[in-house]
Specification:
The protein is mainly β and 115 residues long. Helix content is 10%, strand content 12%. A two-stranded antiparallel sheet has the order 1-4. A two-stranded antiparallel sheet has the order 2-6. The protein has a two-stranded antiparallel ribbon with strand order 3-5. The longest helix is centred in the middle third of the chain and has 11 residues. It is globular and about 40 Å long.
C-alpha cells in the first residue's frame, strides 16, 4: 500500500532570500495521542544531491523510541492540537534534540531513495 500526498521544495536562497533553511523544522507526521504505535513509514526519492549546503534531510536517531513522550511535550508546550492533526512541530528546546539524540544530517545523491 502506498500513498503520495505531496512534495517538499526549498528554493535556492538567491531566488528566494526570505527562506531561511537554518530554521528548525523538526516535526512529527504522526500524532501519538490519536494514533498510537507505528502507523506509517515514510520515504522519499531525492531529485537532487543533498548535503549540509542544500538544506538537506535531518533525522534524530532512535527518536521513534521516544515518540509518545515527544508528542506529550508538544501538547504541553502550546495550544492543544486537534486529534486529527498529524503534523506537529517539535519545540526547538525539546530534550529529544539534545545529547545523546543529536540530529544527524542524511547526505544523499539524486535518485537515492531514503526510508
Amino acid at each position: 500500500i502506498s500513498s503520495f500526498e505531496g512534495f517538499s521544495l526549498l528554493p535556492p536562497s538567491d531566488m528566494e532570500d526570505n527562506w531561511n533553511i537554518a530554521e528548525s523544522w523538526f516535526h512529527t507526521d504522526q500524532n501519538a495521542m490519536s494514533r498510537t504505535g507505528r502507523q506509517t513509514i515514510q520515504s522519499f526519492t531525492s531529485l537532487f544531491d543533498q548535503d549540509e549546503y542544500t538544506g538537506a534531510f535531518v533525522v534524530v536517531p532512535r527518536s521513534h523510541l521516544l515518540h509518545a513522550g515527544v508528542t506529550r511535550r508538544i501538547y504541553r508546550s502550546r495550544a492543544k492540537p486537534q486529534p486529527e492533526q498529524q503534523f506537529l512541530m517539535v519545540p526547538a528546546n525539546d530534550p529529544v534534540l539534545e545529547r545523546p539524540h543529536q540530529p544527524h544530517l542524511v547526505r544523499c545523491k539524486a535518485g537515492d531513495a531514503v526510508f
